Amino acid sequence: MTVSLTTIYSLSFLVMSVAFAAACFLYRWVLRYKVQNREIAEVARLIREGANTFMRREYKILALFAAVVSVLILLLLPSPIWRGEPLTNLSMALAYIAGTALSAIAGKIGVLVANDANARAAEAAKQGIKPAFLIGFRGGAVMGLAVVGFSLAGVAGVLCLVGDATVLLGFSFGASSLALFAKAGGGIFTKTADISADLTGKVELGIPEDDPRNPAVIADNVGDNVGDVAGMGADLFDSNVAAMTSAIVIAQSLSGSLKNIEMVFVYSIIGLLSSIIGIASARINRRGDPTSALNSSTYVTTAVFLALTAAATAVFDGFSWRIWGASATGLVVGVIIGITTDYFTNDSRPIVRRAAHASASGPAFTVLSGVSYGFISALPAMVGIALSALVAYNLCAPMGDGYAIFGIAMSAVGMLSIVGMIISNDAYGPIVDNARGLAEIGGLGEETIQVADSLDSAGNTVKAVTKGFSIGAAGLTVISLLGAFMSEVNTALAAAGKAPISGFDLMDPVVFFGILIGAAIPAVFSAMLILGVDRNAQRMVSEIHRQFDSIPGLREGEPGVKPEYDRCIDIATTGALRELIPAGLVTILATIVVGLVGGASAVGGFLVGNIVSGLLLALFMSNSGGLWDNSKKYIEAGAEGGKGSQAHHAAVIGDTVGDPFKDTAGPSINTQITVVSLVASLLSGLFASFSLFV
Amino acid sequence: MTVSLTTIYSLSFLVMSVAFAAACFLYRWVLRYKVQNREIAEVARLIREGANTFMRREYKILALFAAVVSVLILLLLPSPIWRGEPLTNLSMALAYIAGTALSAIAGKIGVLVANDANARAAEAAKQGIKPAFLIGFRGGAVMGLAVVGFSLAGVAGVLCLVGDATVLLGFSFGASSLALFAKAGGGIFTKTADISADLTGKVELGIPEDDPRNPAVIADNVGDNVGDVAGMGADLFDSNVAAMTSAIVIAQSLSGSLKNIEMVFVYSIIGLLSSIIGIASARINRRGDPTSALNSSTYVTTAVFLALTAAATAVFDGFSWRIWGASATGLVVGVIIGITTDYFTNDSRPIVRRAAHASASGPAFTVLSGVSYGFISALPAMVGIALSALVAYNLCAPMGDGYAIFGIAMSAVGMLSIVGMIISNDAYGPIVDNARGLAEIGGLGEETIQVADSLDSAGNTVKAVTKGFSIGAAGLTVISLLGAFMSEVNTALAAAGKAPISGFDLMDPVVFFGILIGAAIPAVFSAMLILGVDRNAQRMVSEIHRQFDSIPGLREGEPGVKPEYDRCIDIATTGALRELIPAGLVTILATIVVGLVGGASAVGGFLVGNIVSGLLLALFMSNSGGLWDNSKKYIEAGAEGGKGSQAHHAAVIGDTVGDPFKDTAGPSINTQITVVSLVASLLSGLFASFSLFV
Fold it and tell me: What ipTM is given for this predicted complex?
């Protein structure tokens, strides 16, 4: 059977419509539950308003940023407008805007639904674990389907309208810009609020986590939504679009009879369908274990995806079993990375327990053991990514020149194909986390809180798997973005009448120069975000102190006295954006400076250094943060002396260190790498034609 | 003027003799001071015995290890003995043994002299800062001169006897093996003792740092000697030999009229002479400032070196100004790296103060700010290394094929040429640190302790510069080892009748596979060392508790009651070696596995990944450890509430985290990288002829 591009585009839009229909169905299903508790309704309203405030502000700054960038694109990319074709420049600028806009809309939808879902999940927890689980999960699934639907439709739309893969880079860069704001900005927001709330509430005043007297408590809940739901969604939108884009850019440069671009779309379409099936299959089993419900729906999605892509490979002309193998390898490696991440961060495994035990000797040992195991935890994931790249290479190299890299790109597409499912699992976490807080605020009783607790803990466990997955996928994606960069450089060199390059030689000191600097950038970027959280938390802590000092009756909790929640939200918002922008600019400027100094070869090295050290640090920070978090929870559950013990005190310090590691810096590194890779590809013409020293 | 290799060898031995004469003179000068205080003499004796115990044990295990490795070399390297020339194998095995032996002897001398010097420096501090400074400095200089003398003589000896640069790799590998034991083993030893002494003494019992009641106190002082003096000496012996070796291996493969090998030796000889002049010039100025005395002698050495090498370039036929430029660049960059390191770790600069200020918000913020600034501090050093590699490349590339890499190697030789001076400054630190402890134990009075304190603090400040220097030098050395690896691979390929490779292409997934795994190894290695310190400290803490519980009157400090110091030394020794060996084996095995899977290309990538992430982590850990240490001292001097404040408590936790960072893992990474690079070069024949998947 043959499949044409036109059919593919129609199919993409059709499947997108199915996804949106499913999302609407799920959303309406969630809304069927009514919120009756007035306290909960009130707090949910405050959270919604806070989230809206943040997103409005964020999107306003982003719109400014996007306006500047799109004018620059219009003038300069892919080639200066006075030299090239104005229409292509216009297309690219518009594609860029579309990329930011679609990601923004998906994020907005996700936050909206999460907000409705968390109040309802709290209420439903009164009736037991099953309905509450489904509300949390299906609320998250709306975001998952929206993200995947938009990314598929966006890529298909751009390609269908323009027919040039290079313009897709603009779309992908748009998605990355937004992800940088959403993920890193949201990450700073959420940890600012979280740390300030803990420091002033739990530590200074000794009041519980979600006590409504604390002026930062709403900001904290807002943070869970904007950081974890919107940020994570934007991140995976970005990875998914980048994986498809790089596969398509490479596919365009390939010769041969294979239907390369069609294959990319078919895999993505099947991935979306499999995710819908997986989402529909999610049910809590008889033992009432939410973790296995989440995991088994992931495995269902994976199995359906593998079966359907195998069928497509058998049916469609020009589809290759080698590519199927590469993509299957990516998916399997993704699952394996997830499992090893779980080993390092799950409190029923030895590592978290050892870290908890180390806490008994004091906070320095909590930190040292967390750092050490975090370092070690990077190895299996990096070996996994390395092996899947190697297998994809060996499988696809016999197909012809350039197919090896295309195989790696398809491996990334394979890993990301089930991203709808991954996001559903991931967004489930903050929803039930918030539901737990709301259950406490609404006074729904010990039993309901326990139900919410067990849902929350499943969210934390599953998060490890999904995080491992998204880092693994990002790893493969950026390797293929490197391939896309080389394609673009060669296109630019050909246009300038120069000989193409065949690669980047490590023995070339210009490449090495790039590698060293590229490797330092993720460290600097992470540090700037962490310091940003720190500075911002200090601002918020003084605001909280001001409120406690100046609002009579607040500290004592007199009835009717409310803190000024919006001031804290304001500080978190303004600060997050203020701290984020320098970090983003440093990475982009470093890319440009390296390119101007050493040309395309230096940038090739820069990207590799950036990828390698970025992956290492992202894995390290995400996993050590996760294991500190869970070892604190493990101690709170009674181990090593339980709550209030020396070990607990130490574990709380470890958890505070881990907060910006795992929720701000670690997960933002992915986005930083993608942004840098896309900037490099977009500016390849400049780097190919000019360099200062080489 | 022409210079022949025979002249060079003679000159090398002559200059070595001068260095040894100078060392003997300095040692006798130190011994002129008599130790009169009986307490001090007794404790100094205990420290000497403890150090001897550790070194005897260490060298015994090392001898076993070396025996096994030398038999393996005899049988297999450079080619299997049944196929190649048995005489070459024998030479290489002997060279390996010589490498370990010379480094071991230098370490032994250093520890011996440091031991004699610290008691005398304590006594001399009674008479004022000048004599005490000179004893500390000259005691350290003995080690410096011994290390450089041995490395020069060893390299010249091997080359003069065998005439084959490949055999030199065996010598260098011997030096690396010993450095791994001395640096990482010594690092585990010293931090085990330090942390245990602090935890039980300062934290639990509230007794001062060097209180003789504490059973770990002697082990702690021994640790300063074996970790900082012997370990650092072995490390720089290793770097120096590796830099010369890689320059000579590359020089051998070059064609052209330049006197390449001669140049390497002339630069090293001049470096040693300049160090002697610099050492002789060290005097404390009128303001009595030991820091500027140490720094100005470094600058004197640098200036003399640059002048004399310029003269040599002008005088000798075939010497090149381009090479001189490359080497001068390395030296200047080394100084710049040192200065930036100082910026991040000196408590008169803003960074340490900011970290101290963050401590006021609690230990989590101490850790977060230290980690962040540590990350950022890696950037300037990595840019410096990258730029000096690039400059050396651009300077030397016009000289012909392969000269670019030779230029980088000479840049490393330039940086390391003044290593005699660097070691003198570095060994000064632990000597005056111990002197301070002895002054306290001997009850020499507040004024003497203050003198010792100011000497100690200068040691800490200068350490930053020397550490930056040695990491920078190691960075350039391993880049040139990469060049040596490629030379060896091509020799092996030529022997097997295969086509040579011209480089390692980043776009080749096999290379990328190696990079990813190579980058994870320094993280895993560091983690294993840190966890080793942790486990070992737990063993020692329980031993200390046992002694306090079972020796009557010890806790109360009754006169005549002594703890069993040797039990603690025993635990530190056994544990250090037990924890070190798995970490060393993991890195070596990873190299071999990657080579067997992906062949020479994968190993090339592996080395680069290892270098890049190793440099990043080494800089991060050394600098954040240093800044925590100094921010604690800054608070103790009265800032942020001074001793006993919340901030101080937090800063102590930061310092404990930093201890294994800066004294165990961080500085051992250099050695790990060198070991891996040499293993790769030695096994290049295997990797070139066999691989599983490629």
Answer: 0.90
